[in-house]
Every structure is written in structure tokens, then in C-alpha cells.
Design brief:
Largest sheet: 7 strands, parallel
Number of helices: 12
CATH class of one domain: Alpha Beta
Distance between the termini: 39 Å
Shape: globular
CATH topology of one domain: Rossmann fold
Order of helices and strands: EHEEHEHEHEEHEEEHEEHEHHHHH
Helix content: 25-40%
Number of strands: 13
Strand order of the largest sheet: 3-2-1-4-5-6-11
């Protein structure tokens, strides 16, 4: 049987309207796939359509907490991509419901419809972590592989790119505050990865280039401590600010209050995550379960981040745009 052409292949992307989702939609559209974006509010996803040709991209309603909607969005699709995740709990959006139960429903739908599956998790997924975010990510991986053993799983480190929620957040904070906090002394190590590189890796997996039943860890070319990343932000936006070490126990006390904000800047669960380095493991590197293993040379933060943080230096404000 000959390989199916991308023009004839329907890919359902759960969570395709988010930061990573926009880049995945663009990457798959360029490869001529037909794309179904499954989101809770499809009426708000119309801005994705110009990323492809007429009729190539359309949005449908799906909520990972509701199995029937997940299954309906999977019908007739040859590949499913699950990008859905949350950084904090709010209302009915709970880690277990969205990241574990929801991921399992997508995997069960893939199995029921004979579709291939690409599941996006996160570096730091750990069933024994004190962080509920990390535990539910690990539980999801286990359930996904149980339901669809051929699934490819992608674990990115923190994502950067225009409109990211990391460098933009701290650049905005540096504009307003005389100091930036270094939780745990700022010693936690990160391996920031360009969102476009992660989207390319996911598109490669949709193409069939990733190994089935394999967990990939996606990090950028450089490892930096949290303190070094804050220093980079300040150099980039040409501002001088104090960097104040904040012990974990004090950070957790503050987070206990901050978690009740509509969009909390810090939660106790996130403090727990910051106790562990967020970098590609030696095992993943040795087994080529990385961007480089997929033939992708990752972009550096120096090559990308100044192209959008300059707004904080020049105008003192960030004007949102879709990149």
C-alpha cells in the first residue's frame, strides 16, 4: 500500500489555538496536511485559517474533560496531536482532569480510529514528584502508551518565541519592579527551546520520522541557570535591576497567596517544580531522543529573543501579535 499524501491526510490538533499550537498548525499547513483544530472555543480560533490555504484549516469544539467530544474530533483523522496542558489549576480545569484523563481520552480515540498519535508532555514529568503538574504529566505518558503503544511523546523544556510566557513575563516585571526574585537562589537549570523547533519536531513526528513508542526530550543548545536567564533578560532590554535570592520556603509562602490571582504569577506547585533542573537527560542524549536526533539544530535564545524583547527597551510596552 502506498504512503498517504499529506493532501489526503487529516490531522486533528487538540489545543491547536495556544502558543505552541499556532506554530504546529503553521508547520503542518506548510507540509500540506488538512488540519482540524479541536478547542473549547472554536469561534475564537478563526485567526488560524490564514496560516494555510483556503479550506485547509477548520476548528471544531472539543473539551478533553468530555470523552464524547474528544472522540468526535478524532473521526476520520489519520493522526492526532495532543498539545493540551495547563500551568495552574482554575475552576474545573484541574491537572488530573486535563493532563491525565484528557490525554488518555485522546489516546483511546487514536486507538479506536486507528490513528497515529503525537502527545506533548514536558521535561520534568515524574510520577514521584511533589508537584501535581509533574505527576499528572507522567501519569498521562503511562496511560497514553498503554492505550496507544505506538505513540510518539515529546517533552519540551520551557518554550521561547514571540508571545511566550517566560521571557515576556520577566521583561514586563523588570519594567515595573526594581528587583527580580531568584527563587531558590536562581540555581535551577533550564534548557529553553525555540517554539518553532518544537513545532518542527512535532510535524516530523506527524510525517512518521519519530520512533513509535518513544519519549523525546526537546531542549535548546544551551543550559542556563534561572539567574543567568534573568541576567540575559536585563541585558537584552538594557535595564539594571536587583536580583534578589528568595529561599524556596519564602517563595512557597508568597505563592500560597498569589495562587488565588486570576492568572497567578506563581503557585506552590510551580515552586516545587523549580526545585528540579529542567534539562534534557543524559539518557535521551545517548539514545538520540532529542531535537538533534530528529535532525533539528535548535536555535539559541540570543538568535530569537532579542527580536521581540526589544519592544520593552524601545517603547516600554509589549504589543501583542501573532508570529
Amino acid at each position: 500500500m502506498s504512503a498517504r499524501s499529506p493532501y489526503d491526510t487529516l490531522v486533528t490538533i487538540y489545543g491547536g489555538s495556544g502558543f505552541l499550537g499556532r506554530h504546529v498548525v503553521r508547520a503542518l499547513a506548510k507540509r500540506h496536511y488538512r488540519i482540524r483544530v479541536a478547542v473549547r472555543r472554536p469561534e475564537l480560533a478563526g485567526y488560524l485559517q490564514p496560516l494555510g490555504r483556503v479550506g485547509q484549516i477548520h476548528a471544531v469544539q472539543a473539551n478533553l474533560r468530555h470523552a464524547a467530544s474528544v472522540e468526535a474530533a478524532a473521526r476520520d483523522a489519520q493522526v492526532l496531536v495532543n498539545l493540551v496542558g495547563i500551568l495552574f489549576e482554575h475552576g474545573r480545569q484541574r491537572f488530573q482532569a486535563v493532563q491525565t484523563y484528557g490525554a488518555e481520552q485522546v489516546a483511546l480515540a487514536a486507538s479506536a480510529h486507528g490513528a497515529r498519535l503525537v502527545h506533548v508532555s514536558a521535561i520534568g514529568a515524574d510520577a514521584n514528584s511533589p508537584s501535581a503538574y509533574a505527576r499528572t504529566k507522567a501519569d498521562a505518558e503511562r496511560l497514553v502508551l498503554a492505550a496507544q503503544p505506538s505513540a510518539s511523546i515529546m517533552r519540551p523544556s520551557i518554550l521561547f518565541g514571540p508571545e511566550d510566557d517566560f521571557f515576556n513575563r520577566f521583561a514586563a516585571l523588570a519594567r515595573l519592579s526594581p528587583a527580580l526574585p531568584l527563587i531558590g537562589g536562581g540555581l535551577t537549570r533550564f534548557q529553553p527551546v525555540f517554539v518553532g523547533d518544537v513545532a518542527r519536531a512535532i510535524a516530523d513526528a506527524v510525517d512518521g520520522a519519530a520512533r513509535p513508542g518513544t519519549i523525546y526530550e526537546l531542549g535548546g543548545p544551551d543550559i542556563r541557570t534561572f539567574k543567568e536567564l534573568m541576567q540575559f533578560v536585563l541585558r537584552t532590554i538594557e535595564r539594571k535591576r536587583l536580583l534578589v535570592p528568595l529561599p524556596f520556603f519564602l517563595a512557597k509562602m508568597q505563592a500560597t497567596i498569589l495562587q488565588y490571582f486570576p492568572k497567578p504569577p506563581l503557585t506552590p506547585d510551580q515552586v516545587e517544580l523549580l526545585r528540579v533542573d529542567n534539562v534534557v537527560s543524559n539518557a535521551a542524549k545517548a539514545e538520540l531522543r532529542t531535537l538533534q536526533g530528529l535532525g533539528i539544530e535548535p536555535e539559541t535564545i540570543e538568535a530569537i529573543v532579542p527580536s521581540y524583547l526589544w519592544r520593552f527597551r524601545k517603547t516600554g510596552q509589549f504589543r501583542s501579535r501573532v508570529a
